[in-house]
Amino acid sequence: MKSKVWFFLFWGLVLIVIYVSFNLYQKKSFMDGFFDLDSSIQKSNEKMYNAIDDTNKVLVSGLDNNPELKKIILRKIEELRVIIDDFSDQVDFYKKGLMVVCTHGKKMTNEEIRNEINLIESKKSFYFDSRTGQPKASKDKDWTTWWMVEQHQGDSLELLVRNTHKKLIHFYNETIKECQIPAKLKDDEVAQKINKFLNVIALKIDDSWKETSDKNTWVESRFDHMPFAACMPTLEKIKSDARATEAFIVNDLAKLVNPQIVKDIFYPILNAKNGCITQGEKFKAQLALGSFSTQLIKTSYIVINGKKYYLNEKGLVYYEEIPSKVGVNEINMEAVVLNPLTGETTRSQSSFQYQVKK
């Protein structure tokens, strides 16, 4: 009888260990998915950064016949890069600051946090798991809530986004007005450009978060009891929106010089409603071409996971899917652009990852 009892106790313990280990593995994989998503957005940011630089190089050579306009545009592009880089550095403070607070697991002043941020690289063994390479604080929720919500760092971040949004609108308005005479723009063309920018600016905080959250504020919807790992892609997406806004402005200025000079710098842009969804829920996204021209609508399309999608009259593709698996799902995209003037076809690939939870 005793042997049977010990038999059941033994296998009962084995099952418990297997169950706990499986759940830990599932949680680890789930957290890893957020870092994969963060990495994917970072790579997208790098591509946009390089594409903007490529456009700038073309601009320099294409402005020689209009030195007055060239002087204005090159100066404005430099000013814009400073604004976006400074904004990105400030958002990085929240990313790195969260890592410091969550890893230490204690209350810290902003001065202490800033000092510790400078030591992250030299203290990798303290901040990162040697086996996985991921931050040790991946699952922490309490200290993200304390710093971002209770200590109002999230409010400061929201204010930063809103103020930079206004700054970019003012910057664009002043730039277009300054370019009006040398670019020979009519008053109604200037007004149309300014109005269009108000509708397409990517860096903003609107009320769309209310559709998927029962929280009271934007800050709470993004950081209240959110794991550290989940906060990383949220913050990186904010940087991505700023870089996308820079790309739009630079490409728009390129059109003032000569609509034909911006060529072979095309890339698909995916703007997802959510980077993390529940299994069975539809994944929804809006796709567009970077460096877009209305002349290309009929000769361009985007291939998504092997299927061809044509652009609508606004140069957009609306895409949705129900993911087939839990965990990381990837969307592979290719922009195919035929230049109707030269007959040249340009292809550029990109990808996007999102997380599906049960």
Task: Give me the secondary-structure topology.
Blueprint lengths: L1 H61 L4 H38 L5 H8 L6 H4 L14 H9 L2 H31 L3 H14 L17 H6 L4 H30 L10 E5 L3 E3 L4 E7 L10 E5 L2 E4 L5 E6 L5 E12 L6 E13 L1
Parallel strand pairs: 2-8
Antiparallel strand pairs: 1-3, 3-6, 4-5, 4-7, 7-8
Helix pairs in contact: 1-9, 2-3, 2-6, 2-9, 6-7, 6-9
Q: What can be said about this structure in brief?
A:
This protein has 9 helices and 8 strands. The protein has helices at 2-62, 67-104, 110-117, 124-127, 142-150, 153-183, 187-200, 218-223, 228-257; strands spanning 268-272, 276-278, 283-289, 300-304, 307-310, 316-321, 327-338, 345-357. Strands 2-8-7-4-5 form a 5-stranded mixed β-sheet. A 3-stranded antiparallel β-sheet has the order 1-3-6, with no helix packed on it.
